Amino acid sequence: MKKNFLFLMLTSLFLGSSIAQKTAHDADDNAPNPMVFPDSTVTTKNSIIIKGQTVPYTATAGTQPVWDENGKPIASVFFTYYQRSDVQDKAHRPLVISFNGGPGTPSVWMEIGYTGPRILNIDDEGYPLQPYGLHDNNNSILDVADIVYVDPVNTGYSRKIGGSTVPDSKFFGVNADIRYLAEWINTFVTRHDRWASPKFLIGESYGTTRVSGLALELQESQWMYLNGVVLVSPTDLGIKRDGPVSEALYLPYYAATAWYHKMLPADLQSKDLTDMLPEVEDFTINQLIPAMVKGNTLNDADKKMIAAKMSRYSGLNEKTILQHNLDIPVDFYWKELLRDKGFTIGRLDSRYLGIDREDAGDGPDYNAELNSWLHSFTPAIQIYLRNELKYKTDLKYNMFGSVYPWDDKNDNTGENLRQAMAENPSLHLMVQSGYYDGACDFFNAKYSLWQMDPSGKLKNRMSWHGFRSGHMMYLRKSDLVVANEELRDFIKQSIPAANQPSKY
């Protein structure tokens, strides 16, 4: 599948707080990086109004180690942990464990863009505003669940310990990432007395690969059973779709994007987005995929008919589609759709516009949406961690940290999640997708759900939700409200009634 996944989202260090578990004076003198302290925290108190109710909470920012098999710290993983402070009964209080993706980015995106109690200053469509900073997120799910945001190694402030003596392969790979983070979660849950709590994982972008694998790893290696998994803008989860299927599945995304930019024929353009898309999805499954499977056995008349339909739905001309033998590369689409207007469109959110050095070419010079997001998120998280959460360090905050070479072999995370759900009758799944996301597109997300559950026996515990925005759909204010409310409902509905047995 032709996807270049977003390297998406925090970490470890010098703290001057009386609440800190470990200070600079306690650090290992032989540590390669004198700014990295593997086990240190600082806690602040605050409150927020959510749904008209005052919610007091504590925010703990700090690090927790990753140990090797001999009990030696080999990494310092940064986290921020938000707890509602007027709830004492942890057994009934859900815990949400949140990851972003990349795989080389920290949890900043969902922490200050989606579910956390503080949110960055942006306009209602997600574009940067100055002065930079944050304000209360009155849509946060903190009213119904505590949240911990975790930054994998080399993202945010998280770092490896031991320099070259600790191989990168301990951390940088699909399955290595899942293994050490499962161990880390076990330690966190134990330290904070959350074993009795209903537990949920939420991941975005590559974070969906991570949490899908973690669902099974936590069950089978840590004996920790979850209530729910949330996938925001999911990857392909290791589910095979090479060849014609991969090529065809992008068409509904092309149609949504063309509709947004008013590039469709009048009869389609006059329909609402969600009224128009079923026609495109039906064509993709029942005509386009079979036609592309035929390859050079497809006769010229049928090929021309298919190209005409694709042109109608994609906003591209029929000649261009035929020149590509019906296979439109997604990079080319971002360049081509508005080429005559002098713009490219964003990869992760195709509502965003870019300008290139030349109108010619097969792909955009840069990702317009990612630059916009870094513009607003980077100063906001620096201000937030240092000034509000009082976590002070000279360590660089990695919005994008090096995690390469990344071992992407043996990615069976979609099947891992299916097996976890089969083993655990109490485990539920929710997927959230943006219609204008060209990296982890909405129709491929639907396809993954279909293929994960070929028997249909898990359908009653699976749901998919679409939003009129992109990869980080929550940056659009109206979607932020709806998406958080869906999370709130999902958490409540995934917790069984008291004394209800978990069984088939």
| SSE class | alpha/beta
Write down how many β-strands occur, each being a DSSP E stretch of 2 or more residues.
14
Could you name the CATH homologous superfamily of the largest domain? Alpha/Beta hydrolase fold, catalytic domain
CATH third-level topology of the largest domain: Rossmann fold
Q: Return the string of H and E elements.
A: EEEEHEEEEHEHEHHHHHHHEEHHEHEH
* Apparent shape: globular
Q: What's the CATH architecture of the largest domain?
A: 3-Layer(aba) Sandwich
Describe this structure in words.
- This protein has helices at residues 108-115, 174-191, 206-221, 244-248, 251-260, 266-269, 273-294, 300-314, 318-323, 330-336, 368-388, 413-423, 442-452, 477-493; strands at 40-50, 53-67, 73-84, 95-99, 118-120, 134-136, 146-150, 159-160, 199-205, 228-234, 344-345, 353-354, 428-434, 462-467.
- With 504 residues, it is α/β, with parallel strands linked by helices.
- It has two domains: 24-240 and 373-493, Rossmann fold (3-Layer(aba) Sandwich); 244-369, no CATH class.
- The strands form three sheets. Strands 1, 2, 3, 4, 7, 8, 9, 10, 13 and 14 form a ten-stranded mixed β-sheet that branches.
- Helix 13 (442-452) links the parallel strand 13 (428-434) and strand 14 (462-467).
- Mean pLDDT is 93; it is low at 1-31.
